[in-house]
Design a protein that fits this description.
It contains 1 helix and 11 strands. By secondary structure, it is mainly beta.
């Protein structure tokens, strides 16, 4: 069918740099944070970009932080880029921290998720 797209595989939601959100966010797909969120985020994949800030908890399979996060970060794969700053707690299965990243957090292995 012309123009038909499978959104479940490639769906990305974007919180743009001019947006400020207060409250819990839940998504089945991927989320890109360019703006500001005060509240918890639960999704498959979260990318906190350079301009993004989050004050709250993250529960995602894949977490990439280039901006600022203050709270608990929990992910199977956590990647903190050189411009990223995390304070609070980080729980992971696999983690990478680039040179220049600021991590002022308690860091530990993630316990098995109950599915």
């Amino acid at each position: 069918m012309l123009g038909k797209t499978n959104y479940t595989e490639n769906a990305k939601s974007v919180i743009s740099s001019d947006m400020k959100i207060k409250g819990k966010i839940s998504a089945d797909g991927d989320l890109v944070l360019l703006g500001s969120v005060v509240g918890d985020i639960k999704c498959h994949s979260l990318s906190v970009e350079d301009t993004g800030t989050l004050k709250g908890n993250i529960d995602a399979d894949v977490v990439t932080v280039s901006g600022k996060c203050d709270g608990q970060v929990s992910g199977d794969i956590v990647s903190i880029k050189s411009t990223g700053k995390i304070s609070g707690e980080v729980f992971y299965e696999n983690i990478s921290i680039e040179e220049g990243a600021v991590v002022e957090a308690q860091v530990g292995k993630r316990k098995n998720k109950i599915k």
